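Hi everyone,

Forwarding the result from last night's run.
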Amino acid sequence: MLIIGVDYHPSFQQIAFMDQRTGECDERRLSHSDGEAERFYRDLQQRGVSVRVGMEATGYSRWFERLLAELGIEVWIGDAAKIKTKRVRKQKTDRQDAQLLLKLLLENNFPRVWAPRPENRDLRQLLWHRHRLVQMRTRIMNQLQVLAMNEGKRWKKKLFSEQGRAQLEKLPLAPWASRRRQDLLELLDRMNPTIEELTAAVEQEAKKWPEVLRLMMHPGVGPLTALAFVLIIGTPERFPCGKQIGSYIGLIPSEDSSAGHQRLGHISKQGNALLRYLLGEAAQAAVRCDSGWRRRYMHLAMRREKNIAKVAMARKLAVRLYWMWRNGWEYSQLVEFGSHAGQLVTGQGVN
């Protein structure tokens, strides 16, 4: 087998490889723009060489991963943070990075991470595209609120009702402010149908996943949050316990403790930003519609503060969804399990 360590960059890649059959080692720099890298791997495939490629988790490499999958080449994606700890020298070059990756592959010490399938990544694009358009629409709506408030009209949500919009269009504004109002309303009219179409696509896709439908039984969790949770977590077997879910998503506090002194900071935010945001929104929806969740939230908010309580409820929701998915529970089963946890059992003792 030919083992290749790849230090990937958007415009080129530095590789170090070794043929395990002959013991031959070599290094090369392959350019992407002129197709040199693609020709190199296609030539290996035509020669029938068994190849394993190791590279750090990085961006802008989707085309390269698709190429290797098409050629039937085995790809290992490594944890960049763990690979960095393996570097002992203070000098860092592309050649040394490629050599380090090759060394870890040969020593069977490569910190491999789970990588989603291409279909999974494509569905994530649907979620991200809708999320970004909603953010753009929110900015447009905020600007329209500013225009109205500058004219002494504080209508809040009523501004975007049929009556509120009619009143907004009748406001006498200066020429450029009027032009701004017209352009913003036109943008809003174009974005609403697109967002509705994407929302319908998310709902349609959610119906194809039994685990997504199961997670949607939880209060506050809709098709968007449930589908994002399943796509980003991938499989519940990756995590031995629910506590690791909070760490993976970045909902646990950062810590810098030493010499018996515990120092906790803000949440780490080391996970997927979209899933973290959706869990926060879903947790607040659960607080509004479920009395048990509202009681827990108010208890935390009174003890600490609202922001900490919101994060705590989002983390709790993530752990609950994980157990529902892993155990195949419906929401009623989850509630039943939780209601009996910690109750006193006398057994054969005195009644």
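The chain is about 55% helix and 10% strand.

Cheers,
N.
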